[in-house]
Amino acid sequence: MLHTALRHGLIGLLLVTPALGAPTAEQRGKAYARANCARCHAIDRRSESPLKIAPPFRTLHQRYAIDSLEEALAEGIYTGHADMPAFELEPDQIHDLLSYLKTLE
After folding, report:
1. Is 82 helix (H, G, I), strand (E, B) or coil?
2. Vertex 33: Cα angle to 30 and 39 (nearest 5)
3. What's the CA gap between 58 and 33, in Å, rounded?
4. Which of the 8 DSSP states describes residue 38?
5. What's the pLDDT tens digit per position in 21-51?
6. Are 105 and 66 in contact (CB under 8 A)?
7. What is the pLDDT of residues 60-76, one digit of tens each?
8. Lowest CB count within 10 Å: 36, 80, 89, 101, which one?
9. Are 37 and 43 in contact, with CB atoms under 8 Å apart?
10. Quick one: residue 15, left, alpha or beta (phi over 0 = left, psi -120 to 50 = alpha)?
11. Is residue 30 a contact partner of residue 98, using CB atoms and an 8 Å limit?
């Protein structure tokens, strides 16, 4: 009886463990921001943006409702200055990046 319970417990643990180690949407969004945005924008709660005209991500919610950025990210962000590249994100990337931005509000 105890042996069967231990076996079932071990099988359950093995099934759950990979999900526990998977990165969250917030972690994937932060990784995306670090790889694609941090060259110009501050992507954390404290640092200054390397490019002074680039708003820190922690202040974006003061300008825009974060959820309202979904469409702009899907269609492509284009700005009036040449330093920011035009880019379009895939739906999963948008979800992850918005999830991360919400942690900075």
Report:
1. coil
2. 135
3. 12
4. T
5. 789 999 999 999 999 999 999 999 999 999 9
6. yes
7. 999 999 999 998 888 88
8. 80
9. yes
10. alpha
11. no
